[in-house]
Amino acid sequence: MFWWAAVTFASSDLLVKFRVLHAMHAWCQRCRAGGGGYFSGTKNGNPIATQLAMYHHIKQLMYTVRIGQPDPRFGNMLLEQFGGANGELAAAMQYSLQGINCDDPERKDLLMDIGTEELSHLEVVGALARMHLKPTKSDRNAAHADPLIAIAGGGGVAFINSMGNAWTADYLKVTGELDVDLRSNIAAEARAKIVYERLINFTDDPGTIDTLQFLMSREITHLKAFTAALESMGKPQFSIGRIPPTPGLVDQYFNDSTGTGDRGEPDAKGPWNTGGDWQMVTAPAFQPFLSPDAGTRKPGEHASETNSFIQQ
Hints:
Blueprint: E1 2-10, H1 14-17, H2 25-33, E2 38-43, E3 46-57, H3 72-78, H4 80-83, H5 88-101, H6 105-133, H7 140-145, H8 147-152, H9 178-201, H10 206-232, E4 252-255, E5 279-282, H11 303-311
Parallel strand pairs: 4-5
Antiparallel strand pairs: 1-3, 2-3
Helix pairs in contact: 3-6, 5-6, 5-9, 6-10, 9-10
């Protein structure tokens, strides 16, 4: 498990001792409030840290992992939540990076809290996957089932997904717009919940199911927190950014898929395209959409519209 710790040492030891793990954000805040966490000067040309907040690892997992019979094939599936697009590493990096960039101190704290917890989840998933993959270290049949893990990884976990694709920062959704990032986080937690649910459906091991149930439940916890944070900002539901959409055009629903499908799929209508301000536009490919204002707009010309949009 990862917690913040305040450590006193000369920073000449940093290159040897400073291993970045993870931690409790609140403890770091207390260190800063008490005047710690900063270099105080130099000694013999070396910077000195009187007190430095650093990442510290506590060996106890956030959730105790126990399994019965290892299942290397299932261990491979678990890598989806270790180094996959919807996995714990992606979540931890996304929320932490959003938090670093956040100018809202209250929601910054939320992002750092949850980003920190996701690192603890990463450790839990890694421990669970490692237990299931252990036979690939010595059992020929298990190794044949997953050569990438057995040969390249020595039977251990790696930052890859269940198909062997390497983790990438391209998974991260960070825009610098807080409300947009919170919407991305809500969707990320929903996707992670579904992945855990599917993993539960593909194992019969009670200990594994217990661990996955814990992790799945925490995804909903985070989804609730992100949703509440977004709603508490008080922005209109469809107010994104500062430049308002074009009136009229924004309410037009383009009915681009017409007719009846081979399986009887209808040309459907519902609250997503009828009622309220909606205007149905049938077969828009055959409709002219040239605006009379095309090519006439100038920077700043619609500042009054933008201000009105923001205040709505």
